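User: I'm curious whether this sequence folds into something compact or stays loose and floppy. Could you predict its structure so I can see for myself?
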Amino acid sequence: MADRKGELQGLRDDLIERIERYRAHKEQRGGALDKDMEEQAIELQNDEVVDALEREAEEELRQVMHALVRIDTGEGDVCEACEEPIAPERLDAVPFTSLCRQCAELR
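Assistant: Here's the prediction. I'll summarize afterward.
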């Protein structure tokens, strides 16, 4: 479990850095749009991609933080839905999961 916690802490730190880079990118792009319509379209499309990546990273960070709390409370390897143990192979594949494979498939 200690290895998993360390892995999650590293993932947390990476996600925080990534979110900060996305936000910094958006702040740089805050200026006026390029006069060329094609360039404007590309800029807007790029901003939409960065926004989507930021939302995805924020959701993953939320899941990682939740997993860290569950580990600290001793519930990190137990399914939140059925309260059965989560297979170690699943925890290796998706270290921030809170559901066993069967319960995850049902959702």
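Summary: Residues 2-76 form one domain. The radius of gyration is 19 Å.
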